[in-house]
Write a structure and sequence with these properties.
mainly beta; Immunoglobulin-like; globular; four-stranded antiparallel sheet; 2 domains
Length: 125
């Protein structure tokens, strides 16, 4: 999820670490994204800035040979959403990794991948 916002002119350009507490998004599709405490990188470039990839350190996702590879130490429900909040895929994953074919999706597509235990990441094909 990308979040852009305007900062005060006295905030110096650069990269920062921050924490979002009590994050609670409810998308118009009824999908809820909640995190108690979420560490995030923030990049300030001028007066308009953005929050980068929303993620939790125990969930990793990468694209390998037209498949999304998802790794986490937990057995959990994995859900994949479009950036508009549409549920695209849902499966139960055992501890370790799972590969999900995405060969029919266009390059450059962006997805939000949520683990029911280990957190949320954004990935681009």
């Amino acid at each position: 999820m990308d979040i852009a916002y305007k900062v005060a002119d006295n905030v110096a350009t650069g990269s920062y670490e921050a924490t979002i507490n009590n994050l609670d998004f409810l998308l118009d599709t009824g999908v809820s994204i909640q995190e108690k405490s979420l560490p995030i990188p923030i990049t300030v470039s001028g007066s308009l800035t953005s929050i980068g990839n929303v993620r939790n350190a125990s969930l990793y996702a990468s694209v390998v040979h037209k498949k999304i590879k998802i790794d986490s130490p937990d057995r959990e429900l994995i859900t994949i959403y479009s950036t508009k909040g549409v549920l695209l895929y849902s499966t139960m994953k055992n501890s370790g990794s799972i590969e999900i074919p995405v060969s029919s999706l266009p390059a450059g597509s962006v997805f939000i991948i949520k683990g029911s235990v280990s957190g949320t990441v954004k990935i681009r094909l």
